């Protein structure tokens, strides 16, 4: 375990980089956004997650890369929701809608490093009532643990002293081949349904997975295949279940298990790191990496049939995800 300075946040505070290692896996975290900044597998010469070696990229075009997104990941239609019996409006940041809780959100804040060891780190974020427009004094924790031979376990928890909304997601992008690009990477999902969308928002229909959206048996992705949809794993949080397997042309594989009832699959159509080089030494561009985001379903406040994202006082939000790598 090592902790080094990664840069300086806009408010002058130091941003720390925490490196953990166990078995064949080494990961680096930032206390900014609880970002999963780098993932390395022994014997593999390239990074397995898309990111950048400099802080400036994460303060700009890569602001969601690897971060814990919240308090509500994905979209809230009309940037409004009914919370605790009252209507709450937010500042829209994607047309008329709210995306990933706005320009600040959890991804843009420094988390407190509570505990850290050779293979485990616990980070915490405390937010006062009204921050980002959401009610409740909230405490959020992100626990990262490595277990041999090559598994990363992420447990996210949250509590609030007032009715609020909570839908956390890790927003890592995966690159399992020596060169960026989703083309030819094989994706399999244990999802029999998905959510059609219009202008980024789910229409409310829960559609059976057929044709291009039937990934139950797995298939290679096209080099510019556009997917940005929630795949329905269950109708409520459940026990830890294997839900996805991504295999690169290189033979490197990621198996993802989660307790979350949804998985947003995003093939990176709008990736653009501008002048900032990624881990591979060049800027990141469209379709260079694939995001797999365990979550509750998007825009849930406007769809009663979707799993609820309400968090009541005294209740615990908990989500566990395991990322297991092999080659």
Automatic annotation (TrEMBL):
GO biological process: galactose catabolic process via UDP-galactose, Leloir pathway; glucose metabolic process
Signal peptide range in chain numbering: none
Swiss-Prot/TrEMBL keywords: Carbohydrate metabolism, Isomerase
GO molecular function: aldose 1-epimerase activity; carbohydrate binding
Coiled-coil residue spans: none
Family annotation (CDD domains): galactose_mutarotase_like
Family: Belongs to the aldose epimerase family.
Name of the protein: Aldose 1-epimerase
Organism field: Cereibacter azotoformans
């Amino acid at each position: 375990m090592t902790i080094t300075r990664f840069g300086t946040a806009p408010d002058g505070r130091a941003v720390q980089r925490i490196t953990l290692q166990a078995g064949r896996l080494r990961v680096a975290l930032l206390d900014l956004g609880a970002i999963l900044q780098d993932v390395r597998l022994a014997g593999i010469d390239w990074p397995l997650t898309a990111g950048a070696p400099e802080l400036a990229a994460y303060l700009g075009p890569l602001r969601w890369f690897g971060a814990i997104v919240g308090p509500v990941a994905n979209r809230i239609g009309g940037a409004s929701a009914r919370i605790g019996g009252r209507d709450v409006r937010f500042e829209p940041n994607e047309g008329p809608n709210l995306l990933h809780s706005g320009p600040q959100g959890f991804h843009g804040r420094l988390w407190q490093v509570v505990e850290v060891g050779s293979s485990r780190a616990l980070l915490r974020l405390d937010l006062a009532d009204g921050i980002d427009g959401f009610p409740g004094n909230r405490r959020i924790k992100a626990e990262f643990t490595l277990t041999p031979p090559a598994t990363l376990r992420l447990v996210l928890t949250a509590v609030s002293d007032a009715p609020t909304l909570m839908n956390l997601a890790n927003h890592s992008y995966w690159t399992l081949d020596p060169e960026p690009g989703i083309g030819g990477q094989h994706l399999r999902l244990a999802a029999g349904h998905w959510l059609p969308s219009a202008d980024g928002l789910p229409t409310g229909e829960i559609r059976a997975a057929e044709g291009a959206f039937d990934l139950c048996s797995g298939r290679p992705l096209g080099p510019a295949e556009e997917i940005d949809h929630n795949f329905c794993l269950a109708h409520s949080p459940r026990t830890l279940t294997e839900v996805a397997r991504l295999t690169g042309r290189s033979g490197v594989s990621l198996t993802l298990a989660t307790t979350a009832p949804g998985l947003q699959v995003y093939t990176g159509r709008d990736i653009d790191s501008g002048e900032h080089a990624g881990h591979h030494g060049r800027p990141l561009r469209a379709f260079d990496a694939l995001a797999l985001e365990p979550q509750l379903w998007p825009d849930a406040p406007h769809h009663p049939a979707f799993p609820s994202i309400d968090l009541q006082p005294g209740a615990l939000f908990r989500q566990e995800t395991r990322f297991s790598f092999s080659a």
